[in-house]
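Researcher: Go.
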Amino acid sequence: MSNLMKVQDGCVVSMDYTLHVDGELVDTSSGRAPLEFLQGAGNIIPGLEDELYEMAVGESKKVVVAPVDGYGEFDSEAVVEVPREEFPPEIPLEVGVELQVTDESGNPMLARITAVTDDLVVLDFNHPLAGKELHFDVKIVGLRDATDEEMEHGHAHDEEHHH
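Model: Structure:
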């Protein structure tokens, strides 16, 4: 593969990254395999994907992603109060506990308990990073053309490491 290759739609990018939010490390590929994804297919958040075009292997970049291009704005309507007696006794009603609940259509949704009173439990259905500015440090560590199959499926296939 030529070293002149740059990130563009239809290539599979291998990327090392760290993500800081509010000055804290939230996620990193350090100590793991790089993140591999198909550029242009929306495999990663749009605000990050847009910034990777034209980067070459070995290049690093700092990317700041606004909430609207990341995990969305914080939606106050996604915070709901539920009567405490609706919770089964085996669920620990503590701030920070994550629960999977189903909406009326039966779709699983993740909620976090953000407050507990004697009568009410407050559930937050926002993504934990909603409303947050995302600070990425990224480094492109590999680039290759996607295979026809990958293009068809819209994501990278990891042939070498079967988990």
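Model: Strands lie at 11-21, 24-28, 35-38, 60-65, 79-83, 98-102, 108-116, 120-124, 134-145.
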